[in-house]
Structure formats: structure tokens, C-alpha cells
Request: fold
Amino acid sequence: METQHNPKLVSTELANLWTQYMNDSMAICVINYMLKKVEDDDIRSILEFSLSLSKRHTEVIKGFLSEEEYPIPYGFTDGDVNLEAPRLFSDSFFLKYMHIMAAHGMTGYAVAFTTSARADMRKFYADCNNETIELFNRSLDLLLSKGLYTRPPYLHPPEMAQYVKKQGFLTGWFGNRRPLNGIEISNITFNMNKTVMGKAMVLGFGQVAQSKDVREYLMRGTQLSSKHLEIFSSLLHEDNLPSPPSWDSEVTNSTISPFSDKLIMFHTGVLTQTAVAFYGAALAVSMRRDLATQYTRLTAEMEQYGEDGANILINNGWMEQPPTADDRVTLASGKK
Reply:
């Protein structure tokens, strides 16, 4: 049981708060723009609910950090969004975007909860997770009602439960490899759905980014996403299983940016980081050797892409430094 004093925030708690503040301040900009363009009232309701969550979260985080006399991150502001820019994405894309980002949020809040010690921090992240579950459910229900959700493949039940009898179950590259199992299908389709959304978003960003370096980087990102989608699709099609459709047609032909290049690069970095995380999770549970090799290779490609993006952020003075341990060598030398 926690003692009756107010312990300082530990490193993991500071990191969680900082990360969430950056993500939520970005979300406020993105959702405000979407609300200026959305026409469907049902989708508008979901966007308004999500915006209210992000606004509340940032205010609570400011309170936590202020109590610690820890500086509030710069994050993203009204200066990072142009609400008068033309529509860049369709209403359907807005809904799909909210659904995928809610899935990201639930994962992040689960990690934040399990790495927090203070009771008030755990309550905060439990509340955040419950709110985001509601957002996820509402967005999924609306996708289903509008016929916009592609269900993963169905599997027919065997006559009885079975044990694996041969090492051939693990074979991937050589010999007759077995069909994908449900765990492997689940991870492939989940990563495909995320990549489909991310590719469409980066495609739109690439049309409107102001810097040539950023545009070229984003074009490379769409090519990388296309390559990964082709690999995942081929794995499903080999077993006569369907794959999720593209969302590229949900991007308009606008070339006027709603967002600063700083926000665009940060958002692309968030999508890249989550791809690496979910590829890693899929690698851990994939039993066929070829799948493990594919995930290892695709993860390395995403990590390199993410590092190149980080360099662009640093070179332009756009990368905000997260909470960091003291540099004892520098302190001992008398330098700041």
C-alpha cells in the first residue's frame, strides 16, 4: 500500500506524460481541421468526442507537470494547422483514421498504466483507456453500419482440437509450408489495416508538404508502405484469403497544406514507431520461419526510415527533447 506522502514522478511517469502531451496536442490540431471539413453528422460526433478527450488530457498533464515544476512541452499549437486549407481527406478516411488511432491509444495507455507507480497516475491512465475504448467502439460500430469495415478472414472449425505432430509446422522457406494459422492471420491483417491508413495519410501529406526534403521523404514512405502491403497480401493470397482494400482514393488532389511540416513529420514518425512496435509483436508469435524473417526485415526497413525522419526533424529544429537523465560527466566538468 502506498504511504501517505506525495512521491515525485519517476522517469517512466514523466516519459508517459510527455509522450501523451505531444500526441494529444498534435491530435487537437488534426481533429480541429477534420471538424472544419467533415459533412457527415455521425462522423462529426465521433470527432468531437475525440477532441474533448485530447483537450482534457492535455490540461490534466499540464497539472501533473506543473506540480513537479517540470516544463510543459511546446508540443503543437494553432500555428501548426491551417483550418482554411482545402479538404485533403474524405469523411470516410476521417472515420478510419479515428478507429486506427484509438487502437494505438489503447496500446499506449496500457503501457503507461503498467509503468506508473503513483495511484493518481494509474487512475488517470485507466480513465484514458476506458475513454479510448469507448472511442474505439463508437468508431468501429459506425464503420460497420456504413459498410466501411473489412472483416478479417473467416476460419472453418476443425472436427476436434489437435496437437502439432511434426517440425514441418515451423517450415517457411523450403518444402511444403502449412497454411497460415489464426494468430498469424490476425497479425497480418491488423498490420495491413494500419498500413493502409498510414499509406493514405502519408500520400496526402506528400502532396502538400512545403519542404522538398519532407516531400521526398514522404514519397519514399508511400513506396515503402506499398512494398509491405504487397508482401502481406501475397501471404494471404497464397492461402486464398482476402486482404484489406486500399484507402488511397480517399485522398483528394489538394496541394495546399493543412499542417506544418513539423507536425507532418512528427505524425509520420508516430506511425512509423507504432509499425515497428506491432511488427515486433507479430514477430514474437509467428511460428513459420518465413514470417519471422519477413517481420525482421520489414522492421529493419521501418527503423531506418524512422531514423532518417528523425534526422530531418533535428536538422530543422523540430525535434523536442523528451525527459532525459542528467549528464553527470558534463555536470562534473562544470558545463551546462
